[in-house]
Amino acid sequence: MKAHRKPHLPTKTCMGCGRPFAWRRRWANCWDEVRYCSRGCARHKKAAA
């Protein structure tokens, strides 16, 4: 079975690693506030600051 691509989803650039990431269902209510692609990037950025 092939992976399902979702090109219609909005994307952002992660403030921690600089890579693009796509919208996820768990971010439906707070998409405007999301800045990091993962908790690991958020933790790493906070530790460096």
Detailed description of the structure:
- The protein is an alpha+beta fold and 49 residues long.
- The relative contact order is 0.22.
- Helices cover 20% and strands 12% of the residues.
- The model has no long low-confidence stretch (mean pLDDT 87).
- A two-stranded antiparallel ribbon has the order 1-2.
- It has one domain.
Concise structural overview:
By secondary structure, this protein is α+β, with helices and mostly antiparallel strands. Helix content is 20%, strand content 12%.
| Alpha-carbon Rg, integer | 12 Å
**Can you count the beta strands?**
2
Total count of helical runs of at least 4 residues: 1
Mean of residue pLDDT values: 87
The percentage helix is 10-25%
Which outline best applies? globular
Largest β sheet strand count, sense and barrel closure: 2 strands, antiparallel
The class by helix and strand makeup works out as: alpha+beta
Poorly predicted runs:
none
As for the number of domains, it is: 1
Beta-strand share of residues: 5-15%
The string of secondary-structure elements, in order, is EEH
Distance between the termini: 43 Å
- Strand order across the largest sheet: 1-2
